[in-house]
Design a protein that fits this description.
With 310 residues, the protein is α/β, with parallel strands linked by helices. 48% of the residues lie in helices and 16% in strands. It has 14 helices and 10 strands. The strands form 2 sheets. The chain has a 6-stranded mixed beta sheet, sandwiched between helices.
């Protein structure tokens, strides 16, 4: 069984989409997605510097567009993706990419919704200076207890010994100075405490935008960040996406569900690497591939063919 996963914010790097523009149709697709998002995604994916694409309002539509472009290169017809009977999941904003690939929303609807999400989360982040840091290693219970001591939220519980803490910049700095035993604390290149109470104002904006959409039921098995469960209803999918903005991402449970379903191979769409790294540690024996550039497409096609279920 195949899993196709879509990364979240922080996975983008300057110029990462430049190689993809060499493929026929990609510039046109990215231009159209940019129009729906209200951003020049061609420029941001090829020319913009690290500070520009760190901006939440830019980063989120850029990452979703990258996943959609990668998927289109891998599956020129969306029906070919459905024929794989793959499991779909996305981390944080990547869940919107997965939602589009599952057919719950059109690509234009998904990119417009994520543009609203990015703007609203950027505005919420501006209210109080906040940030996030990855905590690697340490005893899981001790890590969570230390976060609580510093007033931080475990915003992403990623499995494989990784928890992402979120809160004010002062709280994050206190954690760096007083980390859990046998753990490393690494600040992340994001501009806010996502998936925490600090994002509450963005929930309303996201909910209002989602209320204007008419979602379809997922055409493929789609896992939710809330609890790792598969969602079968379009309205439930959108409701979960809205709540996700201020609630923790349980990627550990998504991986547990994939393992329980018998996933044998996992393909991560661009900008790829983070989720494959987690899978290698938490989903032993599963073949993995990060699709970073078009040079990875042939290997990805072979993996899809070998692990698709009927």
């Amino acid at each position: 069984m195949l899993a196709i996963v879509c990364p979240g914010q922080g996975s983008q790097t300057p110029g990462f989409l430049a190689p993809w523009l060499e493929l026929d149709g990609v510039r046109e697709q990215l231009t159209a997605l940019g129009l729906a998002a209200g951003h020049d995604l061609v420029a941001h994916g090829t020319e913009s510097d690290a500070d520009t694409i760190k901006d939440t309002a830019v980063a989120q539509p850029l990452i979703v567009a990258a996943g959609l472009v990668t998927a289109s290169a891998l599956f020129p017809e969306r029906s070919a993706l459905s024929a794989t009977h793959a499991v779909l999941a996305g981390h944080s904003v990547g869940e919107l990419t997965a939602t589009a690939l599952a057919g719950v929303l059109t690509d234009d609807e998904a990119i417009a919704l994520v543009a609203t999400r990015g703007r609203a989360m950027a505005e919420a982040s501006a209210v109080t200076p906040t940030g996030m840091a990855a905590v690697l290693g340490g005893d899981p219970d001790e890590v969570l207890a230390t976060l609580q001591t510093h007033g931080l939220t475990p915003a992403n519980i990623n499995g494989a010994g990784q928890v992402v803490a979120a809160g004010t910049l002062e709280q994050v700095e206190a954690l760096r100075e007083d980390p859990p035993a046998k753990a490393r604390v690494i600040p992340l290149q994001v501009a806010g405490a996502f998936h925490t109470r600090h994002m509450a104002p963005a929930v309303d904006a996201m909910g209002e935008a989602a209320s204007r959409l008419t979602p379809s039921a997922p055409a493929l098995r789609l896992l939710s960040n809330a609890d790792g469960a598969a969602v079968a209803d379009g309205a439930d999918t959108l409701a979960r996406l809205v709540r996700q903005v201020s609630n923790p991402v349980r990627w550990d449970r998504c991986m547990e569900t994939m393992t329980a379903l018998g996933v044998t191979a996992l393909v991560e769409l661009a900008p790829a690497g983070t989720l494959v790294g987690l899978a290698k540690r938490a989903m032993r024996g599963v073949e993995t591939l990060a699709v970073k550039t078009p040079d990875d497409l042939d290997a990805a096609r072979a993996l899809v063919e070998n692990h698709s279920s009927s």
